[in-house]
Amino acid sequence: MTDTASSAALGPFDVTRVMAALPHRYPMLLVDRVEELVPDVSITAIKAVTINEGFFQGHFPGRPIMPGVLIVEALAQAAGVLAVESLGLSGSGKLVYFMSIDGVKFRKPVEPGVLLRLEVSFVQKRARVCKFAGRALIGDELAAECEFTAMIADPPAA
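RESULT FIELD:
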């Protein structure tokens, strides 16, 4: 990271600030904290994976593993915080919607009791469509990686 980027870094953010950026709430809020956010560049966030997560009851009994789709969702939520903060959309009501997921690879099971580090960076940023690269890590070990695209839009009409 350059000195310019590190001086522009924001964080840490607690869950209250995360919830100000995202519409997700329990049980679908999968970002617990933001360690660092460099606007227009990247975010490092944390998901504390606990045995109390509802999905562990059935995935899998006797061998709890966080579903891969939820790891990707956690990366997407971290990207949502990055997009909202970078584009100045906090409080605007705009939503960040998945458009595509590419090249997802799962490298290591995510089990209860870990801090899942979510590292997401912009690959391309436009006013309405952004492309991201994301990695989920346990310590220094890669658990999952992917690229994905999201669209920023108004919420659906009630």
